[in-house]
Amino acid sequence: MGHRPLGVLFTALAAWAQTPRVRVSASWTGVMVRVLVVEDDPELAETVAAGLRRRQLAVDVALDGRSGLDRALFTNYDVIVLDRDLPGLHGDEVCAGIVAAGCRARVLMLTAAGSVEDRVDGLGKGADDYLPKPFAFAELVARISALLRRAEPALPPVLVRGDLTFDSSRREACRGGRRLDLTPKELAVLELLLAARGRVVSAEELLERVWDEMADPFSTVVKVTVRRLRRKLSDPPVIETIDHGYRI
Q: 100 in a domain, yes or no?
């Protein structure tokens, strides 16, 4: 297909993926972000996914239009990065199916065709934004960030509950002025609970928002992570268990 020769993009993305973990941009405006990458080139799909995961996003990958649409309809994604030139079920049809189903996800369409007419046509299919290939990874991140700002009201950069604070740009949590040594998953769970502002967050929602599709829905990973988080937050306890959910 026309977008195969992307050696420059692969080199840049691969080099970026090998760098130490970077801070999440302050422009991620909500809690843990769930992204679906629908791209039939396995190398490009996995490289983009790896880069986004290093920004602490939960990312799933679909390599064809049909599986991409199935995932989009089944899972509550925030953003779908959708290649337009997909074999089988074309990207336009995938986008139309997403829009028709009323999915809340924002669609960022990718294509090797970069003319104005192509961009206008892609946006006319229901996409929220359009990015021609080859692209710079920084621009992809910036566009995803812009779509997220458009999707939901921005949360304050620092979430506070009593003596507990969470800095979303630095990915740092403190209690009583003491910095907490938390894993990325523990940070994501804490952020989601704080962002809920007293609302009970179910274990199912935590699993869907913090982990990707590889997580076993019958596992105890949420319970174990919350238990570790409670221990690290120390006394007095701030995380309540209510029915099958949690709140701060």
A: yes
Which ranges constitute the DSSP H helices of the chain?
A: 7-17, 42-53, 65-74, 91-100, 116-124, 137-151, 184-195, 203-210, 221-233
Handedness of CA 23, 232, 78, 86 (dihedral sign): positive
* pLDDT for the residue numbered 216: 72
Residue 18 confidence (pLDDT) above 60: no
* Distance in angstroms (rounded) separating the CA atoms of residues 193 and 218: 21
Contacts of 159 (CB under 8 A, 6+ apart): 165, 166, 168, 191, 194, 195
Same domain, 51 and 167: no
Single residue among 102, 118, 151 that ends a domain in this structure: 151
Query: In terms of domains, do 106 and 28 share one?
Result: yes
pLDDT band per the 50, 70, 90 thresholds, residue 31: low
* DSSP assignment of 94-119: HHHHHHHTT---EEEEEES--SHHHH
Residues 105 and 195 in one domain: no
CA-to-CA separations, 80 to 17, 71, 116, 122, 190, in angstroms, rounded: 20, 10, 22, 14, 25
Specify if 1 maps to a domain: no
Q: List the domain range (segments joined by +) for residue 112.
A: 7-151
pLDDT, greater one: 49 or 24 = 49
Phi-psi region of 126 (alpha: psi -120 to 50; beta: other; left: phi over 0): left
Q: Percent of the chain scored above 70 by pLDDT?
A: 77
In tens, the pLDDT along 150-173 reads 655 556 678 899 999 998 778 899
